[in-house]
Amino acid sequence: MAVLKTKHVFGEPGDLDLDTNVAKLDLFDSAHAVELISAAGRLHSFLSITTLPELRSIACFLLGTSDLFLSASSLRYDAPGADHYLIPWHQDYPFIQDSEKSVVVWFPLLDFAPECGGVRILPESNQEGIRKVRQKENWLELAGPIESVPRSSIVPHLGAGDVLFMDTLTIHRSEANRGTSIRWTGQFRIGDYAHPRAVERGWPRGMTMGQHFREYHEEFIVD
Ligand SMILES: O=C(O)CCC(=O)C(=O)O
Fold first, then answer.
1. What is the reported pLDDT for 117?
2. What totals of helices (H) and strands (E) does the chain contain, helices first?
3. Which residues line ligand 1 (CB under 6 A)?
């Protein structure tokens, strides 16, 4: 993470780096902090993590193909108490689409304490397939009720270098950061390029790219 220097904000390159200073910047210019984080998510050094041989071979194994494609990527900065950026329960598929045979790859970039939260998942929830959703402002909320902390849900505690793989249909949400340090994490969505239904639909993009889920999956929208 130290690759992106905040030189335009703090002075000379090399003296201050993103991971230690974005929190400071956030205090007086949060719009610029968001800009920096968003730009850092497009760094080649960050995106090249997707091509690490270990990551690629696990994705190939899980998806049963070597025709992988990268449907989406994100870099998250979750500061203690910044609850407005947390994502409620969802499946990634309506937001990303492309191929319904995909995995979400979630990984910390730095170590953080368990109190800093992470991603809360409902294990095996993918087995019930694509869930019905309801439009709520710009968001698609799951139509079925889910309590905030179901007994079967887990928050895997990972350190830098660990990677969580989950099916794109796994229900998950953000777990708030109640620690004292920033939670820096990366997310990739890697799919099966040649999956017949993805090919047939023409690889539609998801809600995050401005393509509404309704266009290809009206049957999963409830009013
Ligand atoms: O890391 C988090 O807080 C949740 C990320 C998430 O739900 C997602 O990227 O789909």
1. 97
2. 8, 9
3. 74, 76, 78, 87, 92, 119, 172, 174, 185, 187
